[in-house]
Design goal:
This protein is an alpha/beta fold and 348 residues long. It is 42% helix and 28% strand. The chain is built from ten helices and eight strands. It has a five-stranded mixed beta sheet, sandwiched between helices. A hairpin with a 7-residue loop joins strand 1 and strand 2. The protein is flat, with a radius of gyration of 28 Å.
């Protein structure tokens, strides 16, 4: 696991800050949501449609916010499709199915509803032979339109004449909310509200024509909604994160030589130089060398070795960067343990 959870891409910055430069690494982070091993078959439900008794409020809202017909419904369907497609690609699951006959409604438009009761969750899972429910609990769009008139020059057969161009700008806010229900342990594994904004513009000779030029809005929203569903599926998948580390490049001639080697990717030879400087009779130099040895150990995937060198840099030589680095490394060890657990669960 230690060899697989940490894949490194290294690039050295072209600038220096005081006595250090940056090395950039890619580290594998655990998935934000850990699913128990018994979850193999997934059911996906849409609970975002507004209940009939509240649709008067919704219709009034749509009139004033200039929403298109069935915009929320089609956006929600696109988001469900995006989620389902990504889950199907994940070898972690035996089956993924959209449950269309659940007939669940949201009590209030635009608000994250209270969780489903466990009796309802268990009934749906039992009837559909699923181990967990991914529920789209909220999907709502709200749009506001504004107009502006700008002077322009219009080309006519008689020459250029002054005119006015009307511009309509529509700001659409998309809100969505997901939950994952585990009926076996009666546990809500995740509750995740998200929001995004899209801007559309149209031009015309008058406000009506400008508003009519706001075409393609529904398709754009469906694409964004589909991507949002895909992104939510990634919450159960480990992901790569780009991070930066400072390392010392000044102090002695050896540090400058090691810097040149590091810049060409020759980290092993740079490390050999730093290790020699760890026995320097100059406390500042030895502390920097110990700190750099921690960096090279992290690059090589040896977090325990990196922690020992960073601790030595701080405890023996009072290197200020090293104390913060120890905490970063210890947090990485915790995350690696979570990654190992997630990998073991997925392999069952």
């Amino acid at each position: 696991m230690k060899n697989t959870v940490f894949y490194i891409l290294i690039s050295v910055s072209l600038y220096s800050c005081a006595s250090t430069e940056l090395v950039r690494l890619s580290v594998l982070e655990p998935a934000p949501v850990t699913l128990p091993g018994h979850i193999k078959n997934i059911g996906v439900i849409n609970r975002s449609e507004v209940a009939e008794q509240n649709k008067v409020v919704e219709v009034v809202d749509k009139i004033f916010s200039l929403e298109g017909r069935d915009l929320d419904k089609e956006g929600a369907q696109a988001s469900i499709a995006g989620l389902e497609n990504e889950l199907i690609k994940n070898n972690r699951f035996t089956g993924v199915k959209t449950i269309d006959d659940a007939r669940l409604k949201s009590p209030v438009p635009g608000v994250f509803p209270s969780p489903l009761t466990w009796d309802i969750v268990e009934k749906i899972c039992k009837e559909n032979n699923t181990d967990a429910l991914f529920a789209l609990e909220l999907f709502d769009t709200d749009s506001k339109i504004s107009y502006a008139a700008n002077p322009v020059t219009i080309n006519t057969p008689l020459g250029k004449v002054p005119g006015v161009e009307h511009r309509a700008t529509m700001l659409t806010t998309v809100k969505a909310g997901w939950r994952i229900y585990d009926p076996v342990e009666r546990n809500i594994l995740d509750e995740f509200p998200v929001a995004g904004k899209m801007v559309f513009t149209g031009k015309g000779i008058n406000p009506v024509k400008a508003a009519g030029a706001l075409i393609g809005r529904k398709e754009a929203l469906k694409q964004v909604s589909n991507k949002a569903g895909q992104d939510y599926a990634f919450r159960i998948i480990p992901y790569w994160l780009r991070v930066s580390r400072d390392y010392y490049v000044r102090g002695t001639d050896n540090f400058r030589m090691a810097r040149r080697k590091a810049q060409t990717g020759n980290w092993d030879d740079a490390a050999a130089i730093w290790e020699k400087e760890t026995t320097s009779d100059k406390s500042k130099v030895a502390g920097r060398a110990c700190y750099n040895m921690a960096i090279i150990n992290e690059i090589n995937g040896n977090l325990d070795g990196a922690i020992k060198w960073a601790q030595k840099a701080y405890e023996n030589y009072n290197n200020k960067l090293a104390l913060r680095y120890v905490k970063i490394l210890e947090n990485r060890k915790i995350n690696n343990a979570i990654l190992e657990d997630q990998e073991a669960i997925s392999a069952r």
